[in-house]
Amino acid sequence: xxxxxxxxxxxxxxxxxxxxxxxxxxxxxxxxxxxxxxxxxxxxxxxxxxxxxxxxxxxxxxxxxxxxxxxxxxxxxxxxxxxxxxxxxxxxxxxxxxxxxxxxxxxxxxxxxxxxxxxxxxxxxxxxxxxxxxxxxxxxxxxxxxxxxxxxxxxxxxxxxxxxxxxxxxxxxxxxxxxxxxxxxxxxxxxxxxxxxxxxxxxxxxxxxxxxxxxxxxxxxxxxxxxxxxxxxxxxxxxxxxxxxxxxxxxxxxxxxxxxxxxxxxxxxxxxxxxxxxxxxxxxxxxxxxxxxxxxxxxxxxxxxxxxxxxxxxxxxxxxxxxxxxxxxxxxxxxxxxxxxxxxxxxxxxxxxxxxxxxxxxxxxxxxxxxxxxxxxxxxxxxxxxxxxxxxxxxxxxxxxxxxxxxxxxxxxxxxxxxxxxxxxxxxxxxxxxxxxxxxxxxxxxxxxxxxxxxxxxxxxxxxxxxxxxxxxxxxxxxxxxxxxxxxxxxxxxxxxxxxxxxxxxxxxxxxxxxxxxxxxxxxxxxx
Length: 528
What we know:
43% of the residues lie in helices and 16% in strands. It has 528 residues and is an alpha/beta fold. The chain has 2 domains: 3-209 and 511-527; 214-304 and 327-354 and 375-496, 4-Layer Sandwich (Nitrilase/N-carbamoyl-D-aminoacid amidohydrolase), CATH 3.60.110.
């Protein structure tokens, strides 16, 4: 195969990956998206000249740019995100290629890609530069009737499915070139079975699943403030909160239990030890006094002083002209007649809300939006917020992309899931639409109804099968209401989280160790 042909195959894989992604593509393309790249890898592993790292980097860079180009609307640091993510992906693919050559250089060796890639997706949830947006299993969000078994496997099951089908099709093509009829028949049967059975099982689950739990009326507010020009300007603080109250008044009934508004709706700045002096909380408190049967869930910026001796904690910020230090939080608050509960965002957007500690020289600077500086202080673990007999898990913006993290809310007793977010930074792009899709996956994984409030759309309700019950339009002030089932039963995934990813991680450790030992032995033999 000539060099330009290898480049063409690499580009084709990148284009197919992008063309399969929600919401402007054809989901089924994901099942063949990696086949061209695997074909190139096979030829190189058999001795043809070619740089598999460079070719796979081209594939993944095309995928990243075409799928998440909208990040540029929020920050020029998008370029760094594309470059680094593609670099990590190419490194994983190269590691698979190297291990395959050392351990089993045949079509069967292609299956080694599965643990490597799934281990990488687990890292995307946990390391300093978290970016699980492009984890392969997310691609099925428009096809919820295909993936009802996510209640058992989570998104990792979708990634496993995609990799299996791509590898089997790639191996089928290899058999065809060798004219091995028996192997061809076996591979054709395998492709059909692995492709069709999960869909059949899911369709059966979808048709037979009945929603569980007690009826609970929830209101979702879409306040429609422009985050670039309005939301973070002090002159609009009171107006924004009053707009929330006015919209809630239009929909509240004696049966309403929750009113849910967006992330960062309260920008007045709340010192946690001085909540009684916050104007926004007083305005919301009057609404609650008039409607004590319900509570208000809303996002806000909160602060607290750093305890003595903790001044060197990385998120600690020094106050100007003083020796005092404080923490800043992106928080969710639940306001009822008794008190104000809060939780702080744990999964932060790198560069916007968090600076990796190894980039400590940027600690007091913004490398993205002008309002962001340094690193926010996070909660060390997730916890629910309670009202009456209900326990609500409130995911703040980016957290809704973390399936294992959201499952902790259900594992700890949440009967409803709320997502509060501000997607206005990206404008009218695929970004807010892709983000909306994640709530479908979280609903299926945990069999929890989800209420989602976005500052500028989309907001909506999702049932326990991942169906969209209601949704709002983009850039439209709105309030919607639905009766949701508050479910307390835990799914297998809610109980066990990302167990498939963890299995893949241990397998990857074993493969890396075996590759290292075999490589070392080979070098030792050469010296002799």
